[in-house]
Amino acid sequence: MIRGTILTILISITATGLFGQKFEDLAKTPPMGWNSWNRFGCDVTEKLIRETADAMVSSGMKDAGYTYVVIDDCWHGERDSLGFIHPDPERFPSGMKALADYIHSQGLKFGIYSDAGTKTCGGRPGSRGFEYQDAITYASWDVDYLKYDWCNTSELNAKEAYTTMRDALYRAGRPVVFSICEWGDNKPWLWAKDIGHLWRTTGDIYHCWECEWNHGIWSSWGMLNIIDMQKDLRKYAGPGHWNDPDMMEVGNGMTVNEDRAHFSMWCMLAAPLIAGNDLVSMTKETVEILTNKEAIAVNQDELGIQGYKMLDYGDLEIWVKPLKNMELAFCFLNRGKTPQTIEYDWKKIPIEDALSNCHIDFNKTTYKVRDLWAKENLGTTNEKFKAIVPAHDVIMLGLTK
Ligand code: GLA
Questions:
Q1: Claim to verify: residue 219 and residue 348 sit in the same structural domain
Q2: Over pLDDT 90: what percentage of the chain?
Q3: Nearest to 182 by CA among 244, 127, 235
């Protein structure tokens, strides 16, 4: 008996000690924050990151739940003779630990970027062969979040490469949200649940409603294209392990209506809410979208159920997200160029979601209906819901008992 117990303890020490695990208590709801890439590309400096952290606080984003300030590609300088990575001394003259301290002093968390290959997508040093050393370095800088990309990986096996970095982070001992970014190429939803906290499901997003920007061997995609690529993935998401349809483009060039639809749909999809715009100079409309607490509550619902498209009428789609206490979010998405008139009879269409075990018959249960953008109560499910959804926009409703 005692021998058996000792053996079990030894096995579990070996299992966690040698092979590691991910940090389990993180990202129980979709991570919220900001990342430099979509707006600034390689143009990152410590000044930008500090100002962004300041703006995250002063704009009300921190109060709304945004936490992680993540520097994407191109912060890197060189490795020294011992192999340790250093930030670009011109762009980050005070070093990463000082920057992390500043971000932490604002009550925020600090994220960084690397790549499983020899070089990052921007041609900076990758972590291949330096995984444990880099993880120790990040821990010494007090990094809280790592986005780990997939350029220049040649014949590497994705599951093994991401497992190596997961184990390295775990060994380094500082809890880190691990963001897997291999663009869905190797179907990470099938294998990454115990490796990372979020995984990209697609190629890069681009700030257009619906488009493909072909770069030759890869493409970036408009917002609707990315949504369509989430099909059939919802069963893989949940607390601590999220499908990531990429960082947001709110405030980066689409119209206000389109940005509102984009944000609403990321909320419906239980997607990580990582803003990708310039927080220092954003418009009032952008702030209003990014800090809509009622929409964010849909995204951050503790059940972590990814929403689904319940009805498809071509340009008009109706999306549903089951929430805790049998509450619901509804999103009427108008993909088209003309307004759509809706007259929706709740009682004719029951909710039948086997995945979340959510079954609602509006003939038996009455819900209160609230418009989450107009912030108005609109009666109950006993009456038909009548509205006009503007072109390239949404109406997002919360249903409570
Ligand atoms: C890839 C990623 C992007 C960004 C860039 C940086 O394209 O998918 O999100 O990190 O690399 O070079």
A1: no
A2: 95
A3: 244
204 CB near ligand 1 (under 6 Å): yes
Assess whether 294 and 315 both reside in one domain. Answer: no
Domain count within the chain? 2
80 as an active site residue: the answer is no
Nearest to 342 by CA among 400, 270, 398, 393: 393
Same domain for 253 and 332, yes or no, is no
DSSP class of residue 245 equals -
Rg of the chain over Cα atoms, rounded to whole angstroms, equals: 22
Question: Confidence class of residue 20 from pLDDT cuts 50, 70 and 90?
Answer: confident
Q: Is the CB of 248 under 6 A from ligand 1?
A: no
Q: Is the domain of 156 the same as that of 241?
A: yes
E strands, 56-104, in order: 68-70, 76-79, 85-87
Cα(252)–Cα(223) distance, rounded to whole angstroms? 12
Are residues 273 and 390 located together in one domain of the fold? no
Same domain as 183, residue 120? yes
Give me the amino acid identity at 16: T
CA separation for the pair 133, 138 (Å, rounded):
9
* Positive/negative CA dihedral, 262, 267, 271, 274: positive
Question: Kind and range of the H or E element at 221?
Answer: strand 219-221
Mean pLDDT of all residues in the chain? 96
CA of 3 to the centre of ligand 1 (A): 50
Same domain for 165 and 285, yes or no, is: yes
Q: Which two tokens stand for residue 185?
A: 């190429």
| CATH classification of the domain holding 345 | 2.60.40.1180
Q: Which residue out of 149, 259, 301, 393 is catalytically annotated?
A: 149
Residue with the smallest CA separation from ligand 1 atom 1 is: 121
Ligand 1 pocket: which of 34, 43, 71, 72 to mutate (most atoms within 8 A of CB): 72
pTM: 0.95
Among 276, 299, 322, give the residue marking a domain's end: 299
Could you confirm whether 204 is annotated as catalytic? yes
For residues 338 and 282, membership in a common domain is answered with no
* CATH number of 174's domain: 3.20.20.70
Q: Assess whether pLDDT exceeds 50 at residue 165.
A: yes
Give the domain-ending residue among 299, 327, 345. Answer: 299
Segment 308-327 mean pLDDT: 98
| Ligand 1 touching residue 72 (CB < 6 A) | yes
- Domain residues for 356? 308-400
Distance CA 210, CA 224 (A): 5
